[in-house]
Amino acid sequence: MEIQQIIKQAEQDIRQALKDYGAHTKQTEVLDDVSERFIRRLARDSAYAKQGLRELFSRSPVWDEGIGALVINGTRTHDPDYDRILELGLEILRDALDRDGDQHYSILQALDLFCCAHQSETDRHLSIAAIDALAPKAYTPTKKPSRVFKALCDALGVTDGTAGSGFQRLFAQFADELAAKRIGFKLYVSLNPAHFLTMSNPKEDSRGATLTSCHSFNSTEYRYNNGCSGYARDEVSFIAFTVADDGDPEAFNNRKTTRQVFAYRPGSGLLLQSRMYNTSGGTRGAQADSRLYRDLIQREVSMLEDVPNLWRTVPSTGGKSGWVGMGDGFGGYADWTYDEFDGHISFRSDFDEKRCGILKVGTYGLCIRCGDEISKGLYCDGCEEGRPVCDDCGGHYDGLGTAYDIRGNEVHVCSGCLDSNYRYCEICHGYHDNGDMRHVDGKGICSRCLSEHYEQCKGCGEWFKKGDTYGVYGRNGYSIQVCGSCRGGYVRCSECDGYYHPDNMRILIRAGSRHRHICNDCACGYMACPYCSQLVEACDDGSCPSCGEAIEERMGETA
């Protein structure tokens, strides 16, 4: 999709989202203040800023262009395939199996722990004992199975830590398959600015408030909802969420059930996962969902970049926190900087700290009235004071003039913009966009008045007052209006008095009179002489007035 189409679609999505957001709440004062200037700028800024992420995401078979999001569901996920796990495990451990004949059976017994779906307790204990013998301290009951297997590989000497090595690719597939889980819901991973604006559900929802926060867009209680447009305008943020009813388009904008902001710069191998918000009021009980969302997104990103899905994940407030920072002017709530909110930073195996800069998340938000950049709340200082905003330049002025934009919509602009961008119509006495004005008869006239009071000559293209043009029939036979001068290029039919293009006229030869011009329709009432082929009206004696032959007798014989 071309960038201008993306911008236009985003504008429509934002308007619909704001309408949905206010559908079940009486707290709409903020929503009523949102201007077209804000909508157009947010749609444009977001479309350009997210181009890198959109190019990456759009490679996925689950990218939905209509909503601007990846849609990950049961068709994209599956439960572990233990035959595949065994196949990968044997491939990874092939050198150890070929090399260590005495340990061959122990290696296979250890592998059973990972690739048997329903292992008995006895067999499980035997597998663990085999691992303990091959790789002491590799196994603990709380360690992830993939990490146990990695420790086993280390002990057997088959590990190759080189980025992009065959071992890394196979191990990534092994770990993915081992942790696979089929999900029974849809996870939306979105770049759409409409979804950022509505990231938290509206306050004072008549159906009951749920998943509201300091980012709820219909409230000025906190200043942090500046981050709604701030996230939408940066280059790295995307939002993962679920909704109450996937079949209800309105629910995408006012009834989310979980949501979480992620940030990623394509090709960097550095992923931020911020706080999980849910209907339970925050992070309580959200850790499992948070791990699942992170795993799904890591898999998708790695698949799209054709890189092994091997990540090391640490808390976002720990020693690696310096790799993520707030972008300039960001006024949202940087929840990943707080210990209690369970944010995470993930580093993929190809992450190169020498070439990867700090991941800057968020940027300036926009004032919902004038569209200017701001770093807190929803209004700039001028709009918060209630001073009128020029619809063109966005400045605040005490007095504004009324004008009409290129679409004919009424706008209110400052004197500077009025002088520069608008002209006075001498018919309706209003000010109209320069691009909407024409100079006719020495007057400045807007397009609406032009169409109401003037007619354009289809010959020379000039405009004339209605009543000063004439109807003629063009070369294609359709009626058109032309000025008196251009009508001179048309021929009057002596039968019906209409004016026709010369190509559509015939010459009629009559006895004892001058030749006459008639149109094709009127010519149907006359005959062509079978001798000279001229269009004629026969003489009284039945002869042709052009060649003198007896045409009425000949026509009778032919009949």
List its traits.
single chain, alpha+beta, nine-stranded antiparallel beta sheet, 33% helix
Q: What is the CA-CA span between the terminal residues?
A: 67 Å
The count of helical stretches stands at 20
How large a portion of the residues is in β-strands, by DSSP E?
15-25%
Q: From the alpha carbons, calculate the radius of gyration and give it in angstroms.
A: 38 Å
Give the uncertain stretches in residue-range form.
none
Question: How would you sum up the global shape?
Answer: elongated
Structure characterization notes:
33% of the residues lie in helices and 19% in strands. Strands 1, 2, 3, 4, 5, 6, 7, 8 and 10 form a 9-stranded antiparallel beta sheet that branches. A 4-stranded mixed beta sheet has the order 27-26-29-28. The protein is an alpha+beta fold. The protein starts with a helix and ends with a helix. A hairpin with a 2-residue loop joins strand 18 (437-440) and strand 19 (443-446).
